[in-house]
Amino acid sequence: MRTTGKFAAAILSAIMMANGLSLPMAYAAPSSSYVNVDEKYDPFAEEMPAKEADPSKLTFKERIALQKKEEQAAAQKVTIANVMPGHIYIPKKTMLNVELIEPANSKTHKKNQQVEFKTTENLIINGVVVIPKGTVGMGYVYEVQKAGGFGRKGVLRIAGKEIKTLNNVSVPLRKGLEGKGKTDGGAVAVAAAVSLVGGLFMKGSNINYPASTDF
């Protein structure tokens, strides 16, 4: 009994030592970063212009409110046009030319996974370099789908999140990189007519963006 007890204790000790050695190795494995985003927000959606109200159908009170709103908008444009010396105003919808730092694939990447890119040229406003060439910005996987059976093509949409100016001001971004894989519609139609199982072997292609893909 004593021998059995010692043997069991030795096994238990060995298991604990093995676990103790394996845990740090598990935590040391690299893990991808993910970005917290509003799931209802679509960075690729086109902004619809606001409908102008018909003054003839407005009440007197509503017309006064509309007039004040127009005056405030006009005052804001004047303020933006006369930016204080030493300050820079970055207009909405300013385009940035960037490229991926690492490759991205619809097969391996996950939704909301962080994706980094860098600018390929200086962003210059009023003769001032605001965002230098080579500045690293952050994006994320907005939508992803692996290629699959029945010709289902891969989908990978990478949205911009933010980038910082030369003086460390964070600038929010929209739009990004989007693409879809290819599918053989004819082959899928034939497979579906002959055999339902056969369609599982008719796969679409995944999206693969190599490093340095520009957008």
Q: Cα distance, first to last residue?
A: 73 Å
Give, in order, the helices and strands: HHEEEEEEEEEHE
What is the multimeric organization of the chains shown? single chain
Structural class: alpha+beta
Helix content: 25-40%
The residue ranges in which pLDDT falls below 50 over 5 or more consecutive positions are: 7-31, 185-192
Strand-residue fraction? 15-25%
Q: How many strand segments?
A: 10
Major beta-sheet overview: 6 strands, antiparallel
Number of helices: 3
Estimated radius of gyration: 28 Å
The shape is flat
Mean pLDDT: 74
Word description of this protein:
With 215 residues, the chain is α+β, with helices and mostly antiparallel strands. The chain is 27% helix and 22% strand. Strands 1, 3, 6, 7, 8 and 9 form a 6-stranded antiparallel sheet that branches. The chain has a two-stranded antiparallel ribbon with strand order 2-10. The chain has a two-stranded antiparallel sheet with strand order 4-5. The model is unreliable at 7-31 and 185-192 (pLDDT under 50).
